[in-house]
Amino acid sequence: MEGEEVDYIREATSFPGIGLILRVDLDVSAAGVPDRHETRYFVASLSADEVSPGGLMRLVRGHWCVENGLHYVKDRWWDEDRQWSTRPGLAERLAALRDAALTALRVVPGVPDDMPIRGRADHLGRKLRKALKFIGALK
Hints:
It is a single chain. With 139 residues, the chain is an alpha+beta fold. It has a domain at 1-48. It is built from five helices and two strands. It has helices spanning 3-13, 53-77, 90-107, 117-126, 128-134, and strands at 20-30, 33-44. A two-stranded antiparallel ribbon has the order 1-2. A hairpin with a 2-residue loop joins strand 1 (20-30) and strand 2 (33-44). The longest helix is centred in the middle third of the chain and has 25 residues, at 53-77.
């Protein structure tokens, strides 16, 4: 976005430290058939002198690696966004348990490295003895 737009957004939001606002337009397709058009905005504290357009795109792609590799699993597979509690601290504890489960699924021995997280969970679900040994419940 141009400097005037960034200045306007910085003033309108009273958010300190905005250096750049990036707009990324993309066409999402499934099996080569255009499905939909999406526009995403990113805010950075970097100035235009500190990063190149290619550097910005690497940062955006890095963000989506985290989003697709972690948050997608937690949001879509475990439906984390719809789980809530009024009991203080319970939501944080459940999130920590889900994080621990994801970490354990990433390091479970005897499973191919390229197997996705869901496949790993299914694998352990079919091999209960192996899962119980892995978590230390069986010797």
